[in-house]
Amino acid sequence: MFRTSRKPRAGRKTGRRSPLASVSLIALGLLLSGGAYALVSSSTAVADTSSTATQATVEEGEKLFQANCATCHGLDLEGSDDGPSLIGVGSAAVDFQVGTGRMPLQAHAPQAPVKPVQFTDDQVNALAQYVASIAPGPSIPEDQYLDAEGDAARGAELFRVNCAMCHNVAGAGGALTEGKYAPALTGVTPSHIYEAMLTGPQNMPVFNDANLTPEDKRDIITALKFQENSTSVGGHPLGALGPVAEGLFLWIAGMGIIVALTVWITARSN
């Protein structure tokens, strides 16, 4: 007896793969591998570009240092009789000293005064990056700590405890010994205030992150900027120098009024 062959039922797979499926798999594989290669290549290119830019900045900073700073600080940054070593001071110290015009120093004095800045922002950054490339040190602060949006009340308390004895409770500055002084803090940029706390320029102590955390420094900057932008509710602040200035003003003004009134009464009676 002959067996009749059965026809495959409708909807049942026959085991044969469509040619389009193979083509689709090959195309998908090529697409994924090409995308991964492009992603890795672009990341490498960005990293190479950043590295090249950083190296160019350091080289520019080295040229500026040799032309403007090496006379006092030495070609190798180890210092001399006319200037201290800069090894390990970090980019923050350079940004503060050069960015406020204190350096280059015009003449030897008890301390370096603020004067017009002699370099552009890019040149200051190049100098800072070059010094930082020689040895590690405190770096330029991040923007998140310079927004003056911290806790002003807490910052004012920290300032009174750590800074007011020299800079005055109002940040107006004050005299120190041997012709030195604590400068006024009005008009100083948040980055330079932070860098001063971090590096301790002149006679100022160093407030590293173990003494004052970055958030503490942010709060102090917030308090100073809040006070700087606030109006005096008590009338003219008289330089915010405290009760001595106010008492002196009242003494001179009061005595002047009394003397003038006495002279006027005497003249009237004569």
From TrEMBL:
GO MF, one annotated term: quinol-cytochrome-c reductase activity
Top-level enzyme category: translocase
Sorted UniProt keywords: Cell membrane, Electron transport, Heme, Iron, Membrane, Metal-binding, Repeat, Respiratory chain, Translocase, Transmembrane, Transmembrane helix, Transport
InterPro entries xrefs: bc1_cytC-su, Cyt_c-like_dom, Cyt_c-like_dom_sf, Cytochrome_c_Oxidase_Subunit
Residues that, per the record, bind heme c 2: C163, C166, H167
Post-translational modification: Binds 2 heme c groups covalently per subunit.
Protein name per Swiss-Prot or TrEMBL: Cytochrome bc1 complex cytochrome c subunit
The species this protein was found in: Labedella phragmitis
